[in-house]
Amino acid sequence: MPHDGLQAQLGHEFSDGSLLRQALTHRSYGQPNNERLEFLGDSILNCVVAALLYRTYDGLDEGDLSRVRANLVRQQSLYEIAQGLGLSAELLLGEGERKSGGSRRPSILADTLEAVFGAIYLDAGFEAAERVICSLYEPVLRTVDPRTLGKDAKTLLQEHLQGCKLPLPVYSVVATHGAAHKQMFEVECAIPKLDIQVLGSGGSRRAAEQVAAKLALEAARAHADAATRSGVRRGRVASGKAPGQMPGAARRA
User: Which of 38, 97, 111, 114 is catalytic?
Assistant: First the structure.
């Protein structure tokens, strides 16, 4: 049967092979293409991922569940899963689309994967589609932190500082470069209490702030790690034990 390798990767063998072929057919190749299946698969994917997150993270509230789901079903996440399945080699593309690199285009691969989910649903029902989607996403969930997934650098920095009971960072534009229609911004992110001052640059003030916030967050976390290590060393000295010394070693010496 065509696409045997892909079916093995998915863990689903199609009863109606024409559905899989349609799911892999881009509109540039001809009719029937995968656009309607993509619409169907998108809805099924959102439902299955929502249920999976609900079962997996019982401590997350509705807002955090929505944030994590949005990140997991976005184009980049689908693209990465599609690449892992080797979907590029399975696509049916028109000659022009193939020559222009369509088999590697994230939007095409993400849409095709959603269409495959829709095709599985039509071929064998919701439970079959759910089983395939969960098998693809459960390994992903083992590698992500639901507390931070989908949050931007400014939000993560703010949460880190609040957790350390420190004042919020101060952002200021220190320079702009280039013509008005193509400006580059340089933004400073300062955390005076930690003596941190970093610069970020980007094509907009917001983009530059995000870059600066990421650098400041890395510096703030390094500062916190150093403070923790220093506290551990001081605790050892206060207890009369050198680092790595076994209890009672000083008395035996």
Answer: 114
Kindly give, in sequence order, each residue whose CB lies less than 8 Å from that of residue 87, ignoring residues fewer than 6 positions away: 6, 24, 109, 112, 113, 116
Amino acid identity of residue 139, one-letter, is: P
Tokens 């400014």 identify what position?
154
114 is catalytic: yes
Give the helix ranges, DSSP H, for 142-192.
153-163
Amino acid at site 104: R
Query: What is the separation of C-alpha 181 from the centre of its chain, rounded to a whole number of angstroms?
Result: 31
Q: Catalytic residue among 38, 42, 130, 188, which?
A: 42
* 56-72: pLDDT as tens digits: 999 889 998 999 999 99
Give the mean model confidence (pLDDT) for residues 177-183.
83
In the numeric block, which tokens belong to residue 25? 């057919």
Measured between alpha carbons, how far is 14 from 119 in angstroms, rounded to an integer?
9
Fold for the domain defined by 153-238: Double Stranded RNA Binding Domain (3.30.160)
Distance (Å, whole) CA 193 – CA 215: 16
Q: Supply the CATH classification number for the domain 4-141.
A: 1.10.1520.10
CB 94 within 8 A of CB 29: yes
Per domain, the residue ranges of the chain are 4-141, 153-238
Question: Catalytic: 188?
Answer: no
